[in-house]
Write a structure and sequence with these properties.
Elements lengths: L23 E4 L1 H5 L9 H13 L4 E2 L2 E2 L12 H4 L4 H7 L5 E2 L3 H9 L4 E7 L2 H8 L3 H17 L8 E7 L12 H13 L4 E6 L6 H13 L7 E5 L6 H11 L3 E4 L19 H10 L8 H15 L6 H7 L4
Parallel strand pairs: 1-2, 1-9, 3-4, 4-5, 5-6, 6-7, 7-8, 8-9
Helix pairs in contact: 2-12, 8-9, 9-10, 12-13
């Protein structure tokens, strides 16, 4: 009787031409994911979640948001959480971005040692009003001194990286289709005020690959280079991976994703979960694209987090690799 041959590891690696050899995953589960939970996750569970994500190989993990607790009560423990993550930044060099809505939020973050911050704008007037209670231009005017102050906090050995999130880049629940020129205008404003990087958000998950390519090309035409652009897709219509692949074909090397597919948007009820990090990593492994992520450890982390939340992970890869309905 012969021994059974070992199973071939999956996915089988079949590289495709004209794709980046390596990408950086901007993990948003601990912030964008948990802020949308109905119940508040204990601070110590959040801290362990972030440490487990780092152990799985993720090097950029969005930690929390320094917003007023009234607006996002699930993240009201930012001051208590961030100091528990200091070992990741100091010993591993893990980047721990935090959202800052205004000068007060920035000061709170900088006081705790944050060196990666993000502001969050909208491409549409309706969402700017719902999310920030301001017009698009009023919100930009609010962010400009925040970005300036962040860059002034830099020195030769301690730089502050500023990310500009832009919501509703592909569609808006109140306004419908969003003109590409409108999105480009706000992107340019964020770059011009000093943002180092943009994240193009498909907040309600309505983008399709051609739309993604058209927007990226329009940004390039207006002087925004691809290396300063990341993409943030929601999977409402099952298009997140297809849209990500289109972005990679254009040369994008930063992709936002959420462990276990956690997340949505508390200010846009039609926004469902983010692209699951595990689903993204599975696709990238099959394409031979380096991520530095251990998929087994990441899956185990999402299974653990799902247990903390008391509900199954929506990620198909998590379900397939964990061999059980959580």
């Amino acid at each position: 009787m012969t021994a059974e041959a070992p199973r071939t590891p999956l996915p089988m690696v079949v590289p495709t031409e004209d794709l980046p050899p390596k990408i950086r995953i901007h993990e948003v589960g601990a912030r964008d994911g948990l802020q949308n939970e109905k119940t508040t996750v204990p601070t110590e569970v959040k801290a362990e979640f972030i440490h487990r994500l780092a152990d799985a190989g993720l090097t950029t993990i969005e930690a929390t948001s320094f917003v007023h607790p009234k607006w996002v009560p699930q993240l009201a423990d930012a001051e208590a959480l961030f100091p528990q993550l200091g070992d990741l930044a100091k010993t591993r060099g893990t980047h721990l971005p935090v959202l800052v809505p205004n000068a007060r939020g920035l000061d709170r973050a900088l006081a705790l040692g944050a060196r990666h911050v993000a502001v969050f704008a909208s491409a549409t007037e309706s969402f700017a009003k719902a999310n920030l209670n301001r017009t698009v231009d009023e919100a930009l005017a609010m962010f400009e001194p925040v970005v300036t102050r962040a860059k002034e906090a830099e020195n030769a050995h301690d730089q502050v990286h500023v990310r500009g999130y832009l919501s509703m880049c592909f569609g808006d629940p109140w306004e419908g289709a969003v003109p590409i020129a409108q999105v480009v205008r706000v992107c340019k404003a964020l770059i011009d005020m000093g943002c180092d990087e943009l994240s193009l958000g498909d907040t309600i998950g309505v983008a399709t690959p051609g739309h993604v390519l058209e927007l990226l090309a329009a940004l390039n035409e207006q002087g925004v280079p691809t290396h300063r652009v990341g993409v943030h897709f929601h999977d409402t219509y099952g298009q997140a991976l297809a849209n990500t692949l289109a972005a990679l074909q254009h040369g994008v090397t930063t992709v936002d994703a959420s462990a276990g597919g956690l997340g949505g948007c508390p200010f846009a009820k039609s926004a469902t979960g983010n692209l699951a990090t595990e689903d993204l990593v599975w696709m990238l492994q099959g394409l031979g694209i380096e991520t530095g992520v251990d998929l087994g450890r990441l899956t185990a982390t999402s299974v653990w987090m799902a247990e903390q939340l008391g509900r199954p992970s929506p990620s198909r890869t998590v379900r397939a690799l964990s061999h059980k309905e959580q």
